[in-house]
Amino acid sequence: MRFLTLLGTTLLLTLTVTHAEARETKRTAPHKATSSLSRASHAKVVNRNNVRLHRELKRPLQSGVHKAPVTSNSRVVARARQLIGVPYRHGGTTVANGFDCSGLLVYLFSTEAGLKLPRTTSEMIVSESKRVGRSDLKPGDAVFFNRNGRGSVSHVGLYIGNNQFIHAPSSGERIRMDSLNNNYWERSFTTARRFNG
Q1: Global pTM value
Q2: Per the structure, how many domains does the chain have?
Q3: Can 31 be counted among the known catalytic residues?
Q4: What is the pLDDT of residue 197?
């Protein structure tokens, strides 16, 4: 009797395990198919998303967002700023030797704007350049001065905006930036010219 009970239990266990394995196999087969299908569809979605992302990244570049072009006047002003501190030298037209006031402008417009200016302040004033009023000054304009409001024009500088200009003052000094609002320069200002633009 015990033998039969033991045999029946063993048979029952074997059938239960076999049935459970069969059920498990049936469950996993569709699951595998589903997961491989979902992987494929997931890859397509990911690929589509990648394409979308790449397109979106490219759009701003194609939409015409560009940096503003650097004008020759802004290059002239930028170079003048770099030369602050270079010594004054009568007749000087190079960085190595130093500059006088008109030599500085001749150098700046030649190297940064490709323009050949007259060599002296008096020649610059009578050249065929545009006359500019003080209220209409733009960066890159040449500003001319006499001595303390007296006599003929004897000095020139480069207007850089905000009522400031860069110039080579006089012997023993260095290229520097000054304000047109300074009492001396305000009294001495005579005229301005636009060589470029």
Answers
A1: 0.66
A2: 2
A3: no
A4: 78
- Tell me the CATH number at 171: 3.90.1720.10
Is 167 considered catalytic here? Answer: yes
pLDDT digits (tens, 9 = 90+) for 156-171: 999 999 999 999 999 8
CB 192 within 8 A of CB 144: yes
Assess whether 99 and 21 both reside in one domain: no
Which of these is catalytic: 42, 54, 90, 101?
101
Whether residue 91 contacts residue 103, with contact meaning beta carbons closer than 8 Å, is answered with: yes
Catalytic residue selected from 19, 31, 90, 155? 155
Active site residue 101: yes
Q: Which two tokens stand for residue 120?
A: 């002296």
Residue 41: which domain range? 1-66
User: Residues 31, 42, 66, 167: which is the catalytic one?
Assistant: 167
**Two tokens, residue 61:** 């570049």
